[in-house]
Here is the input.
Amino acid sequence: MTTYTKDQIIAELRKIHQFVRQTVSDMPEANLFAGTAENWSPADYLKHLIIANKPFAKGLLMPREQMESLFGKSETGSMTYEELVAIYQKLIAEGLRAELAPSITPVSYRMPEGVTDVKTYLLETWDDANRRIETALEGWSEADLDVYKIPHPAIGVITVREMLYFTMYHNGLHGDDIARGA
Here is the structure.
């Protein structure tokens, strides 16, 4: 069972970020937007990741006292990476789908008016979302990652470290989905 340090988490998030970025950068436009009613396009998966990552980055900047008053503090610390992934995979096996939460689906993604190069815009937004998470983590100690809690829309209230584990897994999972569309 694995407990990743903050630095290990940041390194893994960077690796996944660059993998997704390079995959999308190298992808022909036709592939980027090729999806079906049953399967999202690579662009749709990227929109979904952006929608999932940006609020987490914002949440990491919330004052600790406010986090505690809203979500409580962990008395037991964080689960391991494998334990968190097993919970999420169980929810998926039981029928959890992003489509059940319209706010995190690509159709809810709002492109600003005047964007003519969607691929570049999505890549810049992806870079920004990842940069925000990393920058927000600068103010977090190892101990605080296991004490303060934050809500996950499907799993419930979990520690910040557990949310980071989820983000690693989720970004990697959909990074692979994006790569399959290349």
Observations:
- The beta strands are 149-152, 156-159.
- The mean pLDDT is 94.
- DSSP finds eight helices and two strands in the chain.
